[in-house]
């Protein structure tokens, strides 16, 4: 039978449809029932049975040797209490893995619960298939142990009608816990028509059933607190029904979660494949049956429509007739991976640990739980005093002085007694020349008073509305001479101690006040106007200056401020915020401590009605309640109130004592750590000789410097061949001695390099060879060799004048021998004969399918195919020939299968399809030295660095709509990478005086330095979307390091590298190009060792390298659809997008919009 390629591909695609498009049936569960070796849970309304495990289960950050199977649709990590204490609650107070948790019944023959441990190959293989399909970009896993729990035909518990089993609805679902040595997974299967009810009666009311994972109560800020949890259903009935209709594993009704890892754990990770292919046509909708017999015990007869279960043998899917089925491409629309965004399942980790995530029709929002307040992203405990820490930078001119006072990072600290609105601010190291003149500027710390002001009924302070991440700019104008001071403050949220973090910059001029002056300020009020992502206020403040000579002056200044923030637009969190609120400030106290050079402010802050309203008499609203500073005041009727100690404190509310978590639970910080008690909380610090690992929690031993060269513990080649050079710390470099070549760990003499360096050649050079009759003059061709003992690609016969090309083994390339006096163009290329055509424009050789590495080398771009994260070196070849060009950076567009590169000779930025075609220059003007380049495959833009013009630019993929986004404080920008899903850019600057790695949003805003210490020459940079790790290679420190940009947990992953230039990541592997080794080197990030090396035929410097994925990474951003509603450039930010115009728009129709949520 003749199979055409297209028809065969379509047929294979439909075979995949059958496995994933339809809802899973009960006979497609993992085998269950007594014939599968199951135990049966005793019939009961609330029955629990312990199961001792032959291999431990990893759940969150703990390991369990036993679990508890319960009737009510869950497995517990400890024996659960009576169902009356947990029904209807998610999360519960104990560790729970809830498949579908409710008040269920298996008594009177209305259902069964089967369970067993299993390590048989068929079960483990099926579990591995589900897990690997759900996490397509992770390393494949092979579980070694499984627990299978099946709830079959269970009914809701209804005490008044027990026994009417034939009339009840039934649910059937299955939980498989699959474990390997360092990870455990939960696989949940919900059958078609297997979720027939979604609520059960709890204390007389219908309560929605729950699915999810809960660690239970854990030691925390007080005796115990609710630990982390993850809900797979919400409080809406539809979320339960969708369990059988949706997926996160690529198969409808099957859900996969990573629920525990060792030695570190961050959060429950859901499967990544949420999209489903189209249902197959009827003629392809064949069924496959399991190879094991199913549960054939006492059959419960329910509705007549239910399918009776039979035991069948597996039959491979066969087409009815072996003929080709061909369809037009337009008839099929298949999205293999999910690009859904804006749901809690994908964004739950963005919420505070004290918040719940809630889905809405247009997206998700985070909401602080009772007892906490904030915007859901940051939540702090009610009543607990709050602190703010930060640094102040800037330049301030004082009076008529022509020289500014420089502030190079002085400390700012603030403390707020929340229950009475009193705030205190201290700024240290303020010189005498500036301190007195800053006394009137209570506005410097006033924002902390607004953030935690005492709330009047119906009004909310700043933190409860916008949380702790926002930007504030205040313009202060002093009368009558119009001196101006600009205050910019970037609030970066709360740290691990719930302290607000702020960076402040001062620029401008203030009137001079002589040393010894004091200032008094009258109460004042400010009107705050609240809009979408913007808050504004303006006020005039009067203050009295008491001069050292006893005279007084009354002065004023005007203050206008704007506060920008990202709010959640999907829910109703801002609906109850009044559009106008008044901040009333009184009891203002300012002081400059000349001896200690400290500037101090104190004030009382209340937020309420702009019209003042009736004065509130309840002490909770006046602040005159007498509650402890660490307590929250709860108003009652009239003037009644109660005092309640804040979280982390214990007492009657009027006297609250800090709970010493370190004493209550001495092991709270784990091994090799010291617990330091803090007010309301605690802090873990590593013992001497230890430091926090990558999870920022576990203390790991610090590597003490070892001179491996001196100790003889290096892995360089023998001293006769190689030299070990100590480079500090525990690093060393291996280099081959003269006469040897290699990477220093494996060195070969030139005589060992093959025929070109052999004794035969040496004898030919000597002029004689030995034949049967003794020595005679040589008439053989003497091969030409390079300095490394390799064949030169061009060989010529001195006797005949003819020339030809040879491969790396010295074998002549057919068709290249020329006539005497003519020379062919020869390039080493193991992939086939070199291109010997005169080509005015270079060509592109198409790549085969799969994931590849693309790297730049002089005038060409080469590729190495990848197979299971390993380089398939025999398939390497040049795909793009660009004579007389120096290509520096390469980037890949996974959507259109196009490679982009920077060329410093023209200079230019160009592109070409790797599926074949001619290169095209997209940008050729106003370039200096373009080096790093990256593609936003979602927003359809390119970003590049220019080390001569010292800037970073963005443009559309065709080179239009070009815009400079960063052009200050850059000296030698080189590598650049994008994280379009989260809206971040990262780049390196190898300025030898002050090298650094920086980040910003993709529109260039919110720029900050990530790394600036212990850097030498950071050449290469890569971002791994799977692990969220940013890694870089440094040719100065000879290290490769990684960090999570949002954590700052910098870790060295490889030391002793020689001269890295480009770097890219793929799964657990990192690949980098090395100038010293002229090679692409692979290293395993988990083991911290190099695993392979590829040296191309042409031994010259290798530059940029990138991963060409066979399919685009999953994820979307706000630019994914309709260009984000932007007229020109749509540039992603973490919570939205910015609409930007080109620097030189061609039309006047461009509209700019700031970043929006």
Automatic annotation (TrEMBL):
Keywords (A to Z) from UniProt: Basement membrane, Calcium, Cell adhesion, Disulfide bond, EGF-like domain, Extracellular matrix, Glycoprotein, Repeat, Secreted, Signal
GO cellular component, one term: basement membrane
Gene3D superfamilies linked: Green fluorescent protein (2.40.155.10), Laminin (2.10.25.10), Thyroglobulin type-1 (4.10.800.10), TolB, C-terminal domain (2.120.10.30)
Disulfide bond positions: 796-803
Record-annotated Nidogen G2 beta-barrel domain positions: 384-617
UniProt GO molecular function: calcium ion binding; Wnt receptor activity; Wnt-protein binding
Signal peptide: 1-23
Name of a matching Pfam family: EGF_CA
InterPro entries named in the record: 6-blade_b-propeller_TolB-like (IPR011042), Cueball_EGF_LRP_Nidogen (IPR050778), EGF (IPR000742), EGF-like_Ca-bd_dom (IPR001881), EGF-type_Asp/Asn_hydroxyl_site (IPR000152), EGF_Ca-bd_CS (IPR018097), G2_nidogen/fibulin_G2F (IPR006605), GFP (IPR009017)
Keyword presence, Calcium: yes
All copies of domain Thyroglobulin type-1, residue ranges: 753-826
Residue ranges occupied by any EGF-like domain in the UniProt entry: 616-657, 658-700, 705-748
LDL-receptor class B repeat start and end residues: 897-939, 940-982, 983-1027
Listed GO biological process terms: canonical Wnt signaling pathway; cell-matrix adhesion
Compartments (UniProt record): Secreted, Extracellular space, Extracellular matrix, Basement membrane
Domain NIDO: 99-262
Listed name of the protein: Nidogen 1a
Organism: Oryzias sinensis
Phylogenetic classification of the source organism: Eukaryota, Metazoa, Chordata, Craniata, Vertebrata
